[in-house]
């Protein structure tokens, strides 16, 4: 079965390499209709998340956010496959780094750092662009795919673009290594953690939310600045991204505050463009332990 999956994946990459973007988005529109209007993919999860996050929005407003969500989900899914056949020039043209001087300054100081992003807009192309546009050596932490053949292809493809993918199981070992050059450690950190008791808890989108402790933990223990990767869609198929400082020394802040700063930056973006976050994820499936404090963000709503 895994061999068949791999062959189908490689066939899709070949087909999408020949598909112009105009037809790619026509196909995306069709898929959005099928999974959204016809099959209502994960509709119960999406509607539950939206209702709790935006209790004051009308049914019409929530329906519009849902429509945008399905279109965005299809766009980034097809763009991810298309990305396997795009040249570096095409990627950089469509995914522009808007404040390289910030990164260059850190590099010239010999300063490594941690950069956190969310499942917002097109995060998939970001794993390609990090290697192309960052002077630092980039490590990207990810959950390996169940199909090891596809996973190996993914890792090899990202390596061609200078991005070194690291399994989340190897995070400790990665941070324990002494880097040979300034390094950026990239983490997409808005998914639900497996252990609620180890998590930092933040009131995010009006809900008590368990947050991964990893970015803050390694920023503290390795004395690394913590940055947010802000990704914006400029037009269909065109994006820009930049880095924004969250904190220079996490160890000097109260426990959980660096994590709260990250969640606040992400929440602000979601409130500006709610349809392009990953609402189909079961984000709020953990219950707050009785001994855990909750950090409340400054209201952005």
> Going across the major beta sheet, what is the strand order?
1-9-8-2-5-3-4
Return the average pLDDT rounded to an integer. 95
Distance between the termini: 47 Å
Helicity, as a percent range: 40-55%
Total helical segments: 11
Q: Secondary-structure element sequence?
A: HHHHHEHEHEHEHEEEHEEHE
What is the radius of gyration?
19 Å
Strand content: 15-25%
- Major β-sheet, in short? 7 strands, mixed
Describe what this molecule looks like in 3D.
- With 301 residues, this protein is of the alpha/beta class.
- It has a domain at 87-296.
- The protein has 11 helices and 10 strands.
- Strands 1-9-8-2-5-3-4 form a 7-stranded mixed beta sheet, with helices on both faces.
- Helix 2 packs across helix 4 (59-82).
- The longest helix has 24 residues, at 59-82.
- The termini are far apart.
- The model has no long low-confidence stretch (mean pLDDT 95).
Structure, briefly:
The protein is an alpha/beta fold and 301 residues long.
What are the salient characteristics of this protein?
about 300 residues; alpha/beta; 7-stranded mixed β-sheet; 3-stranded mixed β-sheet
